[in-house]
């Protein structure tokens, strides 16, 4: 049996999509267990270039069963658009299934996310404005609409009739027009007609796969530093990207996960607000952003860039239980004369080596180790031995800090630009 969670070890955008796409060549099932279309998972393979928001990154293997799990929040509009894009590129969608328990991101969620963000003024979280926070808030408040409801018009009508007056009050508060119940119902039932055949109870499929010892991948969204409980609260997303949440979000017993692969970018990036101790504003930041093409896959926003944070790594390792690392974007560091790695923070004159809570993290200054850079390109390397010795030393130090062995090193965005260690 192998159930492997693939999770982000930093602030998101580590390259989870490309790693899942690679691993899915030999996987029987891929399950997205949390998040929604705030995700932008970039995949480059023989079908082309894709920025997946909801469809699991295993979709390119027609033999892989792809499940949008119950822990997700799904905007049907986005999903239908994404499916059309994939289909027109020749990608088979026969094996795509949606949990009837997934929450629906309704039009009012998206509207309210934008309105609430704007109203926060200088205190903005920098959300993707995709309605993620409001949708998870409704889930917790037990007033969410679920994908299965889209296929039960009478039930849906009753639920929406209960919820909509509250949402309209909130919209009114922001000076926005009320949404019409009949229009919303018509829209939602139309989604139900399109997606209905795929909306199922995914639990028996997951159970059977695990019981039969199939290879299952759990695809995380974002990274630990945006985890609702362990990230830089309140500058976080509204779900838990850590591996521990994958069981609930996919429908697995706690002991089912056999491997946790941490996707670690060879440096750090973040989109959105909140503390980011290793952030750079100098020429190195420009290098990382330009060479690494660090622009949000969902919103197009320039990503904040900085050196790798080696204080976050052991924190992420503990919270997730890493069994192996996939270190990505090593090639982006090619040509830099030196590479820095944060190994501690200075807080009020004291050196600390743990991640403190947000107000203290805001005041932390990074303490760096400096490693020699390498001038040779790593992009064509396909074996560990082909990497410059300086790059090998830097990678070994990352593994030491994360306390887990390196399993993959990615040296470019294409599927084959990967070293299996
Ligand atoms: P995700 O959200 O974790 O799946 O990551 P994103 O797709 O948002 O961001 C990763 C970006 O880096 C994408 O543009 C990928 O195509 C690109 N990428 C992934 N791995 C590598 C790599 O090893 N080298 C380079 N240069 N780009 C990479
Ligand atoms: P992937 O899966 C990077 C960030 C937003 C914001 C915070 C909350 O591609 O790594 P939200 O819309 O979730 O309420 O925003 O989280 N954020 C991401 N940053 N990659 C993502 O996804 C993100 N999804 C959300 O920028 O700071
Ligand atoms: Mg992304």
Write up this protein.
The protein is of the alpha/beta class and 421 residues long. It has twelve helices and 20 strands. Among the domains are: 103-195, Orthogonal Bundle (Adenylosuccinate Synthetase, subunit A, domain 2), CATH 1.10.300; 265-319 and 327-401 and 412-420, Adenylosuccinate Synthetase, Chain A, domain 3 (Alpha-Beta Complex), CATH 3.90.170.10. Helices cover 31% and strands 22% of the residues. The strands form five sheets. The protein has a ten-stranded mixed sheet with strand order 9-7-5-2-10-1-11-15-19-20, with helices on both faces. The protein starts with a strand and ends with a strand. 6-O-phosphoryl inosine monophosphate binds next to helix 4 and strand 10.
Brief overview, please?
With 421 residues, the protein is an alpha/beta fold. It has helices at residues 16-23, 76-88, 107-119, 132-140, 153-173, 181-195, 203-211, 244-250, 283-291, 312-320, 358-361, 389-402, and strands at 2-8, 29-32, 41-45, 48-52, 65-68, 73-74, 96-99, 103-104, 199-200, 215-223, 259-265, 268-270, 304-306, 308-309, 324-328, 338-347, 350-352, 365-372, 406-410, 418-420.
The name of the CATH architecture of the domain at 265-319 and 327-401 and 412-420 is Alpha-Beta Complex
Per DSSP, the total helix count is 12
CATH class of the domain at 265-319 and 327-401 and 412-420: Alpha Beta
Principal-axes shape call: globular
For the CA atoms, what is the radius of gyration? 21 Å
| Biggest sheet overview | 10 strands, mixed
CATH fold title of the domain at 265-319 and 327-401 and 412-420: Adenylosuccinate Synthetase, Chain A, domain 3
CA-to-CA gap between the ends?
Answer: 22 Å
Q: What fraction strand?
A: 15-25%
Instruction: Give the CATH superfamily of the domain at 265-319 and 327-401 and 412-420.
Output: Adenylosuccinate Synthetase, subunit A, domain 3
